[in-house]
TrEMBL record:
SUPFAM superfamilies (alphabetical): NAD(P)-binding Rossmann-fold domains (SSF51735)
One Pfam family of this chain: Epimerase
Family note: Belongs to the NAD(P)-dependent epimerase/dehydratase family.
Annotated InterPro entries: Epimerase_deHydtase, NAD(P)-bd_dom_sf, NAD(P)_epim/dehydratase
A molecular function (GO) term: L-threonine 3-dehydrogenase activity
Protein name: Nucleoside-diphosphate-sugar epimerase
Start and end residues of each NAD-dependent epimerase/dehydratase domain: 2-227
GO biological process: L-threonine catabolic process
Amino acid sequence: KILVLGASGQVGIDLTIRLIEIFGNHRVIAADLKEPEEEVGCKFVQLDATDKDSLLSLVKREKISEVYHLVAMLSATAEKFPIKGWQLNMDTLFQVLEMARQGLVKKIFWPSSIAVFGPTTPKEHTPQHTIVEPATIYGISKYAGELLCQWYYINHKVDVRSVRYPGIVSWKAEPGGGTTDYAVEIFYQAVKDGKYESFLNPDTELPMMYIDDAINATITLMQAPAHSINIRTSYNLSAISFTPAQLARAIKKHLPSFTIEYKPDYRQQIADSWPKSIDDAEARKDWGWSHQFDLDKMVSEMLFQITKKLKKTV
Ligand code: VAH
């Protein structure tokens, strides 16, 4: 069976739904602190991922063979709660890797992030192998996690696979505490109020991706033959890059009266430390990755889905 840890989160909810489509709902167990916003259609277990004993007994009881570990405190929140952020991101990863070392779990997916790159990293088409000096607690924990995954692979043959997600845009679950969350909030505000106050400056270009591409990449990587995986820290992954101003312009094509204002806050410094675009040639070469959603396709899908979602709630 497959366990999705953090199944109620921004990536977790879409991943759970896709895994059920592929393997059937009897093969997938969703676990998180709180129930998901949308019905996922498989067994849900309320779990604090930092509770080692509960996690271990769940894995044994349900005969879990694969774990998708999506639990994390994201960049903006972790800057405010560094110790909790480190513990949540690292201790849970250690536990899952240890269960694999002991032969309980056969395969692990764990996402890293373009947040591992810092101000000294080349900002355009950031290569797979380059200067990695993260400037945030979240980035530090993600890079340490990548090196931990590589250590368990080299020393204990643990089959753990990882991609460095860019900012992800989705609608099924509200993201929490990310610096790229502006690119999700803007759609809710555009549909509800016709205006948005951006916490990032208009020209802040960041690597981004629509959720369907992120899920496709995750499944493709997990289904690739082990011998094709040449990166056991984490693969660069990329789709599109855009600025808040470019995103606002794309939204205005659908909602001409939409207006945006800019009031950068502490998250501007985080965004300024990250690359503008990513070179993901290794992922495309090793396991055939390619993205489907460009900016316009993402914007029309998000506006359609959120308009439908908000109509249901009125
Ligand atoms: C964040 N959404 O903003 C995450 C992601 C690259 C950004 O890691 O923290």
